[in-house]
Design a protein that fits this description.
The protein has about 230 residues and is of the alpha/beta class. The strands form 3 sheets. A 6-stranded mixed beta sheet has the order 5-4-3-6-7-8, sandwiched between helices. A two-stranded antiparallel ribbon has the order 1-2. Strands 9-10 form a two-stranded antiparallel ribbon. Helix 2 crosses helix 3. The longest helix has 19 residues. It is globular, with a radius of gyration of 18 Å. It starts with a helix and ends in a 7-residue tail after the last helix. The model has no long low-confidence stretch (mean pLDDT about 90).
Length: about 230
Amino acid sequence: MEQYKQEFIEFMLDSDVLKFGDFTLKSGRKSPFFMNAGSYVTGTQLRRLGQYYAKAIHEQYGLDFDILFGPAYKGIPLGVATAMAISELYGKDVKYCSNRKEAKDHGDSGILLGSPIQDGDRIVLIEDVTTSGKSIEETYPILKAQGNVEIVGLIVSLNRMEKGQKSDRSALEEIQETYGFKAAAIVSMDEIITYLYNREYHGRVYIDDGIKAAIDAYYAVYGAHGAKR
C-alpha cells in the first residue's frame, strides 16, 4: 500500500472521521463503521486533506485536466483545498468550480460558483464519499449543459465497497458503468481493514477480531460484488 494511503488512514482516525462500532446510516443499514467528513473542521485538517486528494488524483488521473469540480455543499471546500494542494505539491494551476443549489440572478449570476466551464475543458469531480451516486446524477447534466466538456473521472475519499441502490456492484462501479468515466477513491475499506486489523495505533486496536467479524457479516449482506468478506 502506498505511503500516503497509510498516512490518510491514520489521519482519518486522528481527525475522528473514521469510526468503528454500531451506526445507522442514512440508507437505514446498520453498519459497523462510519465515515463523517464533516469532522474535518480546522485549517490544518483541510490542508492535509487537500494534499491526500491531490496525491490520489495525481496517481489516478495525472494532471492533464483544467477544472476541479466539487458538487455543493461538501465538495466546495474539498475542491478549494485540493486545488491549492495541487499547486503546492506539483506546481500545476487548476481551477475550481462548484454548483449552487439555487441559481443566482444578480451579480455573479448563474448556477456555477468559481471558474466558468467552456468547450474543451477537462474536469475531475471531487466528493467526500459516494454511496448511491445521486449527487453525480444531479451534477452530470449541469456540467454537460456548459458545453463540450470531458469528465476525466471522479475521486472520493473512501470506497465503502458496498453494493449500490440498483445492483450488486459498488456505487463507484455503477457510476463508471453509467457515465463512462473512471471513479476512484483515496482508500478502500479493504485497504483500511488490511492496514488496521489487529494493529495497534496510538495504544488502541481499532479493528480487533470482534469488529472484523462484524465487518465480515455486514459485507456478507451489503458487500458489492468482489468486496472483502
